Each structure stands twice: as C-alpha cells, then as structure tokens.
Amino acid sequence: MSPAYDVIVVGARCAGASTAMLLARQGRRVLLLDRAAIGSDTMSTLYIRPGGVALLARWGVLDAVVSSGCPPLDTIEYDVGEVRLASATPRTPGADAAYAPRRGVLDRLLVQAAAEAGAEVMDRTSVRELLRSGDRVTGVRVDGGDLTARLVVGADGMRSAVAEMVGAPTVVSDPLASCVYFTSWSGLRTGFGFHERPGSWIARIPTHDGLTIVSTYFPQQEFAQIRRDPLAAHLGAIRRHAPELYDQVADIVPTDRIHGTGDQRNFYRQAAGPGWVLVGDAGHHLDTITASGITNAFLQADLLAAELVGTDLDDHETTDAATARFGSQRDRATSSTYRSTLDLARLSLSPGRIDLLRTVATSPGATQRYFSMVLGILDAAEFFDDPELLDLL
Ligand SMILES: Cc1cc2nc3c(=O)[nH]c(=O)nc-3n(C[C@H](O)[C@H](O)[C@H](O)COP(=O)(O)OP(=O)(O)OC[C@H]3O[C@@H](n4cnc5c(N)ncnc54)[C@H](O)[C@@H]3O)c2cc1C
C-alpha cells in the first residue's frame, strides 16, 4: 500500500511549520502535526536575527509578521560598562531590520503559510510511537491511529521524542553554560540592546503591543540559588548592570510573570537516518544567549527543502543520501554560531574583548561590522581581516 503522506512533520513551530510549508510548495503531500494548539505561546525571548528575517521575506511570510504590528528592531546597542556601541541594525539582502514577534503569532503565520501551500494540519495530536518496516521509519502512531509517510521529520524540539525513538546519537555535546530568566514591561523608552558584565548578560527586546522583554543571563552554577527567587535576581542584575533601564522598571509592575530555565543544552544529534530527519532544536540546540534558535530553525528548514527538491521519496537510497547531505550542510551552516554562542554563554567578559570593543567603538564602520559578525551576517575571519580594523588596532 502507498503511504498516506509523502512527509509527516512532527512539531508545528518555527522549524516544523517552515519545513512543511517549503515541502508542500514542492507539491509534496505533507501532514504537519503538533500536540499543542496552533497559536499557543512557548518560552522564548522572540528575537529573529536578520538572516532569519531574510528567509521570512524570501518565503513571503515577512509582510504578515510586519502587519501583525510587530515593530522593526532597526537599531542595536551594546554596553559593557566602560564601552558603549550603537548602530543601525546591519542589513542583509532581504532584511532591513530584526523582529521579535510573539511566538503564538509567528508560529501561527508559518502554519497558515504551510496550510495555504497545501499541507494538512492536525494540532492537539501527540506522536506516541514511530511505525517501522525493518530499520526504516514509515510513519507515526497517534491516539487516533497510524499515519504512514515516505519521510518523517522530527521538528519536536530540544527534548525530541522522534530523536529518542529513532535513537539518534548525540554527536557533539557541551556542558550547560548559562541560565536565563525574563519578563516584560509596557511602555519602556528603550530599543533593542544588551548590557554585558563579567557573570551577567541582559537583553532588551521590544515586541508586539508596546511591550519590551528583558532577559537576564547568569552562570549555570548560580541556577540553584537564583531559582529560589528569580524575580529578585532578575531585578538585582538590572539594577547593578543596567541602571538606566532599572530607573524605568523599578516602579512599574511587569506585564507577565517571570519565566526562565537552566536547561539550555548544547548539542548536535545525528541529523538523519533511514526514513527520518531532524530539524530545528530536535537536531541541534544551543544556549539561547545569542538568540539563534529561531533563525537556525529557518535555516535548517531551508537547507532540508533544498536538498529534497526533485528527490523521489520512494527511492530510499536517494532520499537517505539527500537527508544525510542536509546534515552536513546543517553542521557547516551553524558551527561558527555554535562556537561563538558557547563562548558568550560562559559570561567571562575578558579584558581582551573590552579592548577590542573600545577600538571598535571609535569607528561607525567597525561598529557596524562588529554587529554584523555578532548577528551571523559577517564571518569572524572577514571582520578581523578588515583593513580599517587592522589600522585601528
Ligand atoms: C528562554 C528561552 C529564550 C529563547 N529566546 C530566543 C530568541 O530570542 N531567539 C531565538 O531565535 N531563539 C530563542 N530561543 C530558542 C527558540 O525558542 C527555539 O530554538 C525554537 O523554538 C526552536 O524551534 P523548533 O520548532 O525547533 O522547536 P519548538 O519551538 O520547541 O517546537 C517543537 C514543537 O513540537 C511539539 N511536539 C513535541 N513533542 C511532540 C510529540 N510527541 N507529538 C507532537 N508534537 C510534539 C511541541 O508541542 C512544540 O510545539 C529561546 C529559548 C528559550 C528556552
């Protein structure tokens, strides 16, 4: 019997919904399912890097994000105490700004785009088991019955059940580095930016409805202590390291409770095997301090879809070769952000970095290029090889 679907995608957020949309646009018969309700929120500080915004633009979804009332984040500030950098958000083809849409909004827009492309969508549906024929995954078991497919995509997040059920090996793993708490306030007079000190990172991220999310990062070793009273730790860090921001929040009540986690794993899992492939956090997770997860998810969806163009999914050898190539591309495309994220998440602001930033701050061009590097638009080697920077140094 022919499988019911070409592709079943498990998980309907930034990785899964984008993958389903792109594969449905290739004319594949796609089922996108999630155990949560479409449009529900999930824990995130929402920031999409310019590279992710450029993909939304290319996919035709950015206009809907903008129309949802999400403000453009077109400036960026970085304060390390004695040095302050400020610039326009570096541009990349297709993106003039970054955005931080509510996840309920972003994920719903992506699911809508997948449905418009022809994907079938089933929410409030949990995948309990995988179906197999020999060592090949051939579908999923949900409460309502069995659903068969030529390819099963696990886009089900860091604790991926699909990865666990296929036994995807972890191929790279690094220790937990930071922990994070965040809440939001209304009406702050502040744009997008960060405050860094040794042992502390604070980000301000404007989102829908005039709200600004403020996140505070602490070393992982402090998690057990901080979780006893996270709001006090959060406000204490803001008071010590971002006093101008503290002046604005000290006398007003946050619009949300405090959220946070100490479980920000750093790993790569094997990306693919017979009849299965992992995208987004399911296959690769990293500390959230550089706000890269959503952009990484988009990038992976795009890479997987490109590898599958024209692939005959009934031809197992060709399909598995395509998904394996996707795995190599994923590793190449994400490894430098992974390394720089681990570096930053150790929260050890070194004197050498302060010196570099002091030099960078003397030149608007170098500042722009520094932010381009931080946001993954410019390669680190290109940043450091720049003749103007070499002159300044
Ligand atoms: C505190 C925090 C702050 C963050 N801030 C940012 C940020 O500012 N910018 C950024 O880029 N990233 C940020 N991230 C990371 C970002 O949220 C993730 O990288 C991103 O959500 C990954 O998307 P995904 O689609 O791979 O997985 P997820 O968003 O985790 O979605 C997985 C989906 O799979 C579904 N699912 C799971 N198991 C099953 C099952 N068995 N059956 C059916 N469905 C299932 C879940 O219901 C869920 O909807 C943050 C994360 C945290 C925790």
UniProtKB/TrEMBL annotation:
<dbReference type="InterPro" id="IPR002938">
    <property type="entry name" value="FAD-bd"/>
</dbReference>
<dbReference type="InterPro" id="IPR036188">
    <property type="entry name" value="FAD/NAD-bd_sf"/>
</dbReference>
<dbReference type="InterPro" id="IPR050407">
    <property type="entry name" value="Geranylgeranyl_reductase"/>
</dbReference>
<protein>
    <submittedName>
        <fullName>Dehydrogenase (Flavoprotein)</fullName>
    </submittedName>
</protein>
<feature type="domain" description="FAD-binding">
    <location>
        <begin position="5"/>
        <end position="301"/>
    </location>
</feature>
<dbReference type="Pfam" id="PF01494">
    <property type="entry name" value="FAD_binding_3"/>
</dbReference>
<dbReference type="GO" id="GO:0071949">
    <property type="term" value="F:FAD binding"/>
</dbReference>
